[in-house]
Fold this protein.
Amino acid sequence: MRQIFDIHGGIHPPERKELSDPGFVMDCPPPSKLVLPVTQHIGAPARPIVEVGDTVLGGQMIAEAQGPVSVPVHSPSSGTVTAIASRAVPHASGMTDTCIEITLDGRCEWITCQGVTDWRAESKAALLDRVRLAGVAGLGGAGFPTAIKLASDRAIGIHTLVINGTECEPYITADDTVMQCFSREVVEGAEILAHMVGAETILLAVEDNKHEAAEAMRDASAHLASAEVVTFPTKYPSGGEKQLIELLLNVQVPSGGIPADIGVLCQNPSTAMAVRAALIDGKPLTDRITTLTGMALGKPGNRRVMLGTPIGELLAHGDFNSETSDRVIHGGPMMGFSVTDLDMPVVKITNCVLAPTRSEIPPPQPQQACIRCGLCAEVCPASLLPQQLYWFARAKDQEQLERHHLMDCIECGACAYVCPSHIPLVQYYRSAKGSMREASKEKVRSDNSRVRFEARQERLERETAARDAKRAARKAAAEARLEAGDDPVQAAIERAKAKKAQQEGEQ
Ligand code: SF4
Ligand code: SF4
């Protein structure tokens, strides 16, 4: 039996997972309209390739990837494009973004999907292309383009694929449900992923509060000698990629690095299933399993929901009682953020929509002064110093934030959870990270401008030097002619005199 290691810190908040009854999926009926943001992933937005008035089919690409770190968007059903406009999208900052609105015709007509007959016989490049064109991005909540992760060109090869079925955040049971209801698809997806990256070992990692999911994974992977189901004690946030790798393999991903740096690839069970669907069924990513939960719902549970479905319509399917709730959360209670507009759509990263009652998750209490108790540092799974990060974030001291590895913060919220002063620490970190990313982009921009300016200066200096050299050469040649008695001015005067004498003679 595999030895399990411990990670620094962590907390045990109430799990509340029973509310959404994992292991059972209901289909959410298609809404009348879908709102599909062109950015549902980390990276460059996709570029719309349809216009208002176009009719589209389910599975049809409606926005294409722009650049290497981007993924396309597909229509989940048939209908007409009725708007391409800025709309509220799920994001911690409450931002708006370009969305393609499709009014559905109710016929649910799809393009013909063509999968590969034997994925083992296909080249890695061909498989990657299919994953990219199917619009697959990490469905665990991060939204990183899956094809980019699979195309890793690190010097060290990938030796271990980890299917991260930890799902440690309270309330959320989407991956638990996927592992129970679609275990064969998840395992086949894992096999394909391992084949693509050349991993010899597949670890199917499940927290010990998901017995049925672990059992289903064991049954589905029994035929695979390279696969092993690993269970470990429940603790938040064991599901962070770096934390899970340390827990399973007792190795740390270097600060600022990624799992591929140490030969590990992590993928979420839903993402593995989406990769399988892209290759075997030829089906692009147009829907997902999302947990609909919270005590303000009469019918919580896991739903298969079309991407682009307005969150308000999904809530209505769960018998949402708005009288008892004054906020809806996209994601879980630890890492999620408030839904500012119920027309906001379900997107690729929507693993949970949580509608708690006021007593279930009370509104945040007023922030008080830090009492330097150190509890935040005790629970930080990344071994950071959250209290110092808080002070540096407030002081906008980017140098110190960098020195204290703010970018290694996984925004798990464990520090804020235990803070007796109710300081919304993660909000400070998110805002500071945003400023640091902006500053680094600005530095790249100003470095590029400086390089362009210096190149122009060099070109101008080269041109001036070339002109000076030509002028000097002409002067030297003239002086040489003078010295040789070959005065060009005198010669011109003589030629003019001769011409005049000739003209007079002719008269
Ligand atoms: S837990 Fe809160 S009060 Fe205690 S040191 Fe950290 S930030 Fe300060
Ligand atoms: S949010 Fe960041 S600083 Fe706070 S506990 Fe999590 S990793 Fe540590």
Observations:
- The pocket of iron/sulfur cluster (ligand 2) is lined by residues 379-382, 384, 386, 409-415, 425-426, 429 (CB under 6 Å).
